[in-house]
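Consider this one:
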Amino acid sequence: MDDARPTQKEIARLTGLAQSTVSMALANNPRVSEKTRKYVHEIAGQLEYRPDPYLTALSAYRKRSVSAKYQATLAWVGSDPDNEVWSVIPPFYRHYYEGAVERARELGYRIEEHNLVKGGMTGQRLSKLLWARNIPGILFAPQARPGASLVFDFSHFAAVAFGHTLVSPAIHTVVSHQSKSMLKLLDELQKLGYKRPGLAITHQSDNRTMHNWSSAFWGVQQTLKPENRVPILMVKEMSANVFKVWLKENRPDVVVTEQRYGHAWLVEAGESIPETIGLAIITLRDWQKGYSGIMENSRLIGARALEFLVDLIHRREHGVPEVPTTLMVDGSWVEGTTVRRQNP
């Protein structure tokens, strides 16, 4: 019995193709026609061909050691008619894009931007356009509103979305690990001696995270003494007045929030940060130098999404998945100067 592993050379011999063509076809490189790719995969399946993991690792190492050659163009698809995600909720969503573009360049891919809802574009038109341009994979930008749905023909494409805002169809996603980040933040605050943390967020922010922030916060609250459990302030629209009333009634010793005006409102309420009260930001922006809180590592999220997408392309996993996968990237605690160690 011959136990030799089938090789690309053998596939090339049986198909009459060059070994380089076979290699590109197995990697689903769009420079090889779809007909040829299907034929090569069919022969590879008959031979029960499996890539040698050691050779694959060596190939990956060699690719990292030299400038990557162009592989294919991928699409970044937005569905934000008024640029709300980019202009109102900056800058970490923009950093997703920058991280993806940088990693794509390293791997030999190029990213092309498209918008699903501008210039009379429709999902059907855009899917045909991308297919005609031999674009094998799509990164779907965060949606302007949580609970969004897209009408789009996914059948020809590998696809990855950012965050939890796209609910239909359910495709693979890459997200910040918000619940773990909240747990990490609260653990760091407890180590510093804070006993009465208070969470102040909007409904939209909590919905965008599938309630991961509030549920993780609530879970930790149940481990605190009853007198140290501060009611969560969650409102449709946050305002200085609502925030100050909640602050006065509940007296947290540290405020946890995503609100950019949280600092100013605390100062207006007569607080001194961090002397009389602490402030921890759930999602630190680049401009919030010196603040304490969680940095979501947004560029890394973009890079991981691009890598995920390329893996899907190589495995020929197109269309809406039967079981979607979510890849979560941990945030990093930044102590900053808006919290301090409490007196025992």
Remarks:
- The mean pLDDT is 86.
- The radius of gyration is 25 Å.
